[in-house]
């Protein structure tokens, strides 16, 4: 025990002698120093403390903090497989969103607006085109050409059909129709005929119906097609004002037609002028108080019946 005490006293004496030697230096600049911002006496005390303990806790901790950068998760770069995974998840998310939209009511047709028809009903147009409520909205509109061909194939009265999105879930069906212009007789049956000369065999009847005229006296298809085309250009009320159209040429006019009107009058008119001149008929008869014959071949003349 006494030997240990003597050893400690000897160590203390050595440390004191070392400090005295440091304090007795006249030129401090010649000594290697570390700039810490502390006074000379404080640095001496720190040196003594380091000699006694072997290290300075504060300085060691500060050095470690400076040497080891802090981890910031926001600045860490992703690995290649992580980037690939994120891209795949993003693509799947977008695909799921689109799929969810198309199978939801928001992505389906809830209403059709059929416009441009005269004879055809909305139901007949939609059936011919194969259009139904609940069909995918955007894919249906973008396949307008397909539904147009399907409608033309299934119904000869459809000249063209075009689809257009007009509301959140509403599709406009714009139809250009080949109008029905009357009937032709074949045997004992009367068949509807269109403005382009097409005869509708599925609509035959025992007598003309619908207030459209019967065509009679025609000896060639060329004559009939010219008359049908011209008559189809007239308004619906005017078409329904005629009960019969007879091919009736004479020496002065090889294209003369005789029209029997539902009001009891007769009209003489050229086939190639039918759509242009028959439009004046309603204004002419409005000024008359007797039935008779209106001649619209050259000018406009009216002769009352005797």
What does this structure look like?
The structure is a single chain. It contains eleven helices and eleven strands. The chain is α/β, with parallel strands linked by helices. The strands form two sheets. The chain has an eight-stranded mixed β-sheet, with helices on one face. Strands 1-3-2 form a three-stranded mixed β-sheet. Helix 5 (122-129) crosses helix 7. The protein is rod-shaped, with a radius of gyration of 52 Å.
CATH topology of the largest domain: Rossmann fold
Helix percentage range: 25-40%
Radius of gyration over C-alpha positions, nearest whole angstrom? 52 Å
How many β-strand stretches? Answer: 11
The major beta sheet can be summarized as: 8 strands, mixed
Q: Name the CATH architecture of the largest domain.
A: 3-Layer(aba) Sandwich
- Order of strands across the biggest sheet? 5-4-6-7-8-9-10-11
The number of distinct structural domains comes to 3
- Assess the beta-strand content as a share of residues: 15-25%
Overall structural class, as computed from helix and strand content, comes to alpha/beta
Q: Which CATH first-tier class of the largest domain would you pick?
A: Alpha Beta
Number of helices: 11
Family: Belongs to the FtsQ/DivIB family. DivIB subfamily.
Subcellular location: Cell membrane; Membrane
Function: Cell division protein that may be involved in stabilizing or promoting the assembly of the division complex.
Keywords: Cell cycle, Cell division, Cell membrane, Membrane, Transmembrane, Transmembrane helix
């Amino acid at each position: 025990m006494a030997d240990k005490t003597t050893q400690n006293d000897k160590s203390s004496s050595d440390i004191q002698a070392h400090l005295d030697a440091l304090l007795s230096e006249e030129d401090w600049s010649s000594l290697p120093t570390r700039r810490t911002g502390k006074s000379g006496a404080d640095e001496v005390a720190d040196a003594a403390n380091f000699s006694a303990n072997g290290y300075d806790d504060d300085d060691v901790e500060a050095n470690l903090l400076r040497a080891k950068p802090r981890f910031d998760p926001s600045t860490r770069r992703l690995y290649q497989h992580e980037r690939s995974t994120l891209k795949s998840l993003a693509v799947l998310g977008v695909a799921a969103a689109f799929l969810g939209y198309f199978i939801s009511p928001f992505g389906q047709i809830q209403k059709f607006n059929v416009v441009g028809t005269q004879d055809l009903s909305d139901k007949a147009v939609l059936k011919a085109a194969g259009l139904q409520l609940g069909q995918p909205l955007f894919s249906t509109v973008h396949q307008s050409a397909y539904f147009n061909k399907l409608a033309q194939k299934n119904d000869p009265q459809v000249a063209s059909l075009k689809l257009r999105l007009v509301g959140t879930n509403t599709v406009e069906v714009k139809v250009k129709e080949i109008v029905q212009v009357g009937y032709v007789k074949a045997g004992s049956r009367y068949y509807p005929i269109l403005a382009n000369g097409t005869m509708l065999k599925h609509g035959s009847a025992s007598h003309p119906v619908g207030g459209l005229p019967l065509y009679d006296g025609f000896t060639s298809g060329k004559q009939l097609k010219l008359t049908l085309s011209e008559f189809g250009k007239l308004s619906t009320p005017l078409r329904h004002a005629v009960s019969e159209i007879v091919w009736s040429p004479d020496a002065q006019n090889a294209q003369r037609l005789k029209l029997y009107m539902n009001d009891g009058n007769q009209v003489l008119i050229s086939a190639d002028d039918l759509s242009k001149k028959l439009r004046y008929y309603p204004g002419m008869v409005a000024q008359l108080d007797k039935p008779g014959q209106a001649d619209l071949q050259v000018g406009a003349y009216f002769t009352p019946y005797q």
